[in-house]
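>> received
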Amino acid sequence: MAKRGRVPLLSAFMAQYSLNEPLPAEVFEGGSDPWIGYRAFPTYSGQWFWRRTALFAPFVSGVALLQSLLIGVSVRSAPLGWLTAAVGVPIWIAIATAGPAFAAVVRHRHLSIRWERLAIVIAIVAGVAVSSFGQHLANEFSRAYILPAYAPYLSGMAGAQHADVMTVWLIRSGSGAIFFCLGGGLALRTYFREQSTWRDAQRARELERLRQEKVEADLRLTVLQAQVEPHFLFNTLASIHSLIRPDPTRAEATIEALVDHLRATMPRFRADIGSTHSTLAQQIEVCSSYLAVMKVRMGQRLRYTVEVPESLRVHPFPPLMLISLVENAIKHGIEPSPSGGNIVMSASVEVHGGSQQLAVSVTDDGVGLRTGAGGGLGLNNIREQLAARFREQGALIIRGRTVGGVIATIRLPYTESLA
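>> returned
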């Protein structure tokens, strides 16, 4: 499962990897130094190539012109100097740009990561081959024009006829390394490191976005809690007020149940806000004490049961979600029904989408779904909480029962070791 999930994630990162825009600060930290400014763009991209060429081409052209000037002055021949420049400048520019040019063409082909990396290396090697061919042309030019011009000065030196022509153009022993370095080979390390750094930066941004979403969801949860408690208290106190004269015994029992509920749940409510460290057992306790109060208020019109195996009660469960479903069942299902009804809290482990999930349901046999049901503030908040905490693995499902009533189910990932 982990391997299948990794490819889309990597593809998502690389799909956002624009070759025409500067790299983010997390990837390129070179500042405004003009000598490395081209590296602010993705390595081997078009922008990188043209900006690097604008920097390197004048430099290597200057080297070639200086070399030509020295040759012309040494042999006292301006035409030979200009001819050397006409040959040398293009060769030096080709040495500096051939590999990067090939690599830029490859990169803009938008190949898969594996093939792109292989093709980039081949492109740099091809650039070195072009540079070697340029060196060969320089050797031939030297043998044909430069060595004969130097012959009078070298005639007294032993083995002059075998003089190494690269003493004029390049030190042969180090030419391969020079071609590789000057021809974009050093940028290979930057290319591979850049992609890794980019993915790390993207992951960090994604984690920060998820963290921010969770913070915002927790804030909405706090607001919801601030709405839930007064709503419940006001309704209960209003019920007590209406019972004081006609049924003082029932009013007293309601007060006692309310006190027990607040004593048992208020510390839990306060601790749960913004916290993920909550178990299903703790949330069932909150709901049970709430239902006990409502049972006293509503009498025989309300009946409830808890059908949750002990093995599942220790499983982590987000706070305040289950109580919202129970409140919803009473408010929209049981209270509108003249005969009241039953509420059942249950939990089970189900296989969904190829993985195990904990399914916690609140079932009522009240008036059933009505137009617009399932989209209230509390239910939307639960959906947002599940999305922020569990992404696509969390869901709230509201469906009507064929015999009347509603089943509201929260699904979230099940971890056997935690249950």
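>> The chain has two domains: 2-185, 211-418.
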